[in-house]
Structures are given as C-alpha cells and as structure tokens.
Amino acid sequence: MTTRRNLLMLAGAAVAASATAACQAADDAEPAAVRVPDVLVVKTRDGLAVARDGGLTPGRTGALSATGSTLCLATAADKTTQLDFTTTLAGTRLGGYPIDGRWTPRVVHADGSLVALAAPEGDPLKPQARAKTTIVIADSKQIRQRITVPGVIEPDAFTADRQGLFVLEWLPATAPDHYRVRRLDLATRKLEPLWTRDKVPVPAGAEEEMRGEGRTAVASPTGRVLYTLYTHQPGHQHTRDLLSGRPGNVHAFVHTLETEQNWAYCVDLPDPFGHSASTAYSIALSADGSLLFVVDLAAGALARISTETLKVLDVVKVGSDTGSAYAAASDKLLYLGGDHGVQVLDQAGQPVEKWTTPAVRGLAVSRDHQRVYLARDGAVTWRGSTSGEAALPGLTGLIRVA
C-alpha cells in the first residue's frame, strides 16, 4: 500500500505536497458503497425495499410474489393510491397507475400477474370488526374487479389458475378473534370451503378455525404450495378430527395449502412445539422442496417434515437461543439465527459450525446456494464463495434473495 511516508521517501518536497493534498481529499470523500453480490428483498422502517449494487431503493408498502419475482408497491397520495409493479431482479417497471381510495397490496400471484388489495385498516392479523369487506383485484395495467363480500375477510393467496383467492374469514364479524381459510371464487364472488387432501369438499361444520398468533409461512419453489406454521392453538381440532369425532388438542401445526388442487392438510407438531413465545419459531424449506424445517429456538428443537408424505420425520435437538428465530436452507445446509448468532447444520440437523454475530434480523440463501446472507439492524453480511458486509441504513429485516 502506498502511504504518505513512502511518497516522502521516494520524491522531493513538491511531490510530497501533492501527495498530501491527494490523501486529504481521499479522507474527506464518502467511502465507496459495497456491492452486494445478489439482489435482496428487505424490510425497512418505511416498508419493502430492494438492495442492489450497494444501494437501497426507497421503502414502500407492498407485497412480494411467492416466487420472489415481482413486487407490487403502493404509495398513498391524497385520496388515491399509486400502484407499481416491478421485477425484483432487474428492477424493471412492469406497469402502474393511480386508483381511487386508500389500498394496501396484500398478496401477489406466484407468477406476479395479479395483486389483491384491501383497505389499510390496522393489522390484518388483528382486524377490526366490520360488516363487509371490499377487495380489489388488479394487474399491472388495470383494475380487473372490485369484490365486496359480507364479513371480515383478509386475502391470503391466489389459486394457481387465477380463478380464485384464498382468504381468511375472521369470526365473528362483530368481534373477530379467530378465522377459517376459505376460497373466494372470483367469478361468482362467493366464499367456498376448501377441499380435503382426498379432493373432497370439506362438509359444513368441519372447517378448521384458527387464531392468528404465531403465524408465519413459506412457499414451495414454484409457489404452488403454501406452508403456514401456527403456534399457541390449544384445543384446536383439525378437519380430520371434526369428521371422525376425535377430540383435538394440538398446540402447533403446519397448515399446507395446495393452490392448484385447492386442498388443505395440517401436519401436527409434537411437544415441545407450541409452548414457546411465537417469536421463537421459524420455518424453512430445503432447496429442492422435499424437506420442511420448523425450529423452536427457545426450546432448542428442530422438526423435519417430508413434504411428500406430510409427516414429521423426526425431532432433533439443536442449540437454543433467545430473541426472534430465523431459518434458511440451501441445497446441503440449514441455517438457524437468533440473538447470539447463527447455527449451521446439515439437513439431518447435525451441527457443522456456529457463527457468533450481532442479533440476526433475517437469513436468506442465494439462488446458486453459494452465499448465505445475515441481516442485522442497518446492515447485511454474507458468507460463502465470497464474504463481505454492506451498510444499508434503515434496514430492519431480510426477506429473500431475488
């Protein structure tokens, strides 16, 4: 490295003066932004944003498609909402337009073609009582339809064929505290029950009713299947229990929603799952989609689930940690993050190594499985084929690699 002392030794006073000025200019200049190797979808204090080439797009209210390909972002202005569709990887604007009223994107179709918007009325997992709900279905060019249905309804996912929308119907509408998953037919505008895994419509009175606490989800690589983890559900009865007359008393389970064939099935989790604080849980899917991992970081327990049979293969003891739990998987490894760092495991749940880091605020693996990203407040770090760190002011979480 050429230092000021080396320059003084190699040249006369005139050269030294010039070098001193150059060094002072370099000290006063802003440090060059560190380039993040991949495009990241992140959370900021202002909403969803994209980290690309050392920069961070402005945070906005929005929703991301299950495959991570498309962002639908909204900006409120007076009595209208500006809607914008962009690709996450290239940042290409696909379209956008203003719509009357105040609306929030809730779910985007897996292929990015449609968005369902609802009025921004507080927390969708703690909705306010209301007699009816209006949902706007839109694409990147125009509004397709406005649907008003009775009760407290929150969009959850589109059907694969775009003919329906899975929704959470909160009950009772006058004081909502639990819900059931139903299908809204976009043609008839009617709410329908889901099907069982045997492709039989769920009979009246046998639909599962759930509470919103501890609800977190991950989608299959194609976005066709949505796995949602529910915790703190004492006394819950699954559809199969209601049909058979068996008493239910499960504290945690994974609700599996197949968006092409419209069926749902719940995978029960054994003790100790369901007893820790909801923030202690996280869920991740292996790169090939064959294994689903559920971790209770407070209890130090990891459940491995086969997505083919929808059965728990085993529960493995892992290191415990405090704070919010995060999980991500590559083609070979599983990463679990908490307040005190990241545990690296093989996919059998056996320890490989431990990284001591500041409190983790998100984990994600690059599409080529060569790098794992760790978010912390205001920065992101990556390890693997390359390593580095980039300051991203305002960063509060990491969603995925685009």
TrEMBL record:
Keyword Signal set for record: yes
Span of the signal peptide: 1-21
SUPFAM superfamilies on file: YVTN repeat-like/Quinoprotein amine dehydrogenase (SSF50969)
Keyword Signal: yes
Keywords noted in UniProt: Signal
Superkingdom: Bacteria
InterPro entries: Quino_amine_DH_bsu (IPR011044), TAT_signal (IPR006311), WD40/YVTN_repeat-like_dom_sf (IPR015943)
Protein name as annotated: YncE family protein
